[in-house]
């Protein structure tokens, strides 16, 4: 396995992989924040099935979903990536990506509804720097992080970057809870409450499927259900999947997204519906 910390080392080795058999190989990219788990494994495996070579990139010193800095074991993440058929790990350090710090760096921004629920310009800029270094043919995501996926998809389209985006279903535990790096941080009553998130998402989708279109009322009902189970609500929104605008009467492709908190741990999940 190749381990690279800068484009200067990464690009020549990727060029060898691209052209080693006399024809252009397909390179895929999976970005992570370290602390890899089975959800990442499924994304890496999916990337391996649709490309010739997989690059796993670890975004450095990024905030975890629980607000704490990742204490990333590079050895464990490399071993995990290797086990799941990745051939390259790209782990650029923070001071390489942002030598002048975040405050003195031009950060990418995007307009409108794409940023109303979630917006991290440092993460968006880091993603684009990694994409520029790897120059992948395909980028593979898990749909639990659909909003970030949609933001990157928008940037690639706007900047005419010829990287295809591919999104795979969320990996879930037997009780429906989305696999997350925060799993080991949740205990007691909070663990027992977690299935309520996915159950509420599924119930919302079923309500829409049945023909209901009072989206504000549907969202309010979901809020009440989740708060009754002990969650604080950051957002629970029914969106048009193509635009991320709030869903309208004429919407046919829905994405129901939520971010909640329980025991100070954020829980992110979503489900889609095509009519």
Q: What does this protein structure show overall?
A:
This protein is α/β, with parallel strands linked by helices. It folds into two domains: about 1-170, Rossmann fold (3-Layer(aba) Sandwich); about 185-275, Pantoate--beta-alanine Ligase, Chain: A,domain 2. It has helices at about 5-20, 40-50, 75-85, 95, 120-135, 145-160, 190-195, 195-210, 215-230, and strands at about 1-5, 25-30, 55-60, 90, 140, 165-170, 230-240, 255-260, 265-275. The protein has a six-stranded parallel β-sheet, sandwiched between helices. Strand 8 and strand 9 form a beta hairpin. The longest helix is centred in the C-terminal third of the chain and has 15 residues, at about 195-210. The model is unreliable at about 60-70 (pLDDT under 50).
Topology:
Layout: E1 2-4, H1 7-19, E2 27-32, H2 38-50, E3 53-58, H3 74-83, E4 88-90, H4 94-97, H5 121-134, E5 138-142, H6 146-158, E6 164-168, H7 189-193, H8 195-209, H9 215-228, E7 232-240, E8 253-262, E9 265-274
Parallel strand pairs: 1-4, 2-3, 2-5, 3-4, 5-6
Antiparallel strand pairs: 7-8, 8-9
Helix pairs in contact: 8-9
Proper CATH architecture of the largest domain: 3-Layer(aba) Sandwich
Order of helices and strands: EHEHEHEHHEHEHHHEEE
What is the topology, as strand order, of the major beta sheet?
A: 1-4-3-2-5-6
Strand content bin: 15-25%
Number of domains: 2
Helix content class: 25-40%
CATH fold-level name of the largest domain: Rossmann fold
Low-confidence stretches: 62-72
Structural class: alpha/beta
How large is the count of helical segments? 9
Distance between the termini: 44 Å
Radius of gyration: 19 Å
Overall average residue pLDDT: 89
């Amino acid at each position: 396995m190749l381990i690279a910390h800068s484009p200067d080392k990464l690009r020549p080795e990727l060029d060898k992989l691209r052209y080693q058999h006399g024809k252009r190989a397909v390179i895929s990219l999976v970005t992570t924040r370290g602390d890899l788990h089975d959800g990442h494994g499924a994304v890496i495996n999916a990337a391996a099935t649709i490309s010739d070579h997989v690059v796993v990139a670890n975004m450095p010193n990024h905030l975890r979903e629980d607000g704490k800095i990742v204490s990333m074991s590079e050895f464990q993440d490399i071993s995990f990536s290797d086990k799941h058929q990745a051939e390259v790990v790209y782990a650029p350090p923070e001071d390489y990506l942002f030598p002048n710090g975040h405050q003195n760096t031009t950060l990418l921004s995007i307009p409108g509804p794409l940023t109303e629920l979630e917006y991290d310009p440092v993460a968006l800029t880091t993603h684009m720097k990694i994409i520029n270094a790897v120059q992948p043919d395909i980028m593979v995501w898990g749909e639990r992080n659909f909003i970030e996926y949609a933001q990157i998809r928008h940037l690639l389209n706007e900047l005419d970057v010829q990287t295809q985006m591919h999104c795979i279903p969320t990996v879930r535990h037997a009780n429906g809870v989305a696999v997350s790096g925060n799993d080991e941080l949740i205990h007691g009553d909070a663990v027992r409450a977690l299935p309520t998130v996915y159950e509420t998402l599924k119930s919302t989708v079923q309500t829409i499927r049945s023909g209901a279109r009072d989206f504000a009322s549907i969202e309010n009902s979901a809020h009440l259900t989740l708060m009754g189970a002990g969650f604080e609500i950051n957002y629970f929104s029914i969106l048009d999947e193509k635009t991320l605008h709030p869903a309208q009467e004429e919407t046919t492709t829905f994405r129901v997204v939520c971010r909640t908190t329980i025991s100070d741990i954020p829980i992110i999940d979503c489900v889609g519906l095509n009519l």
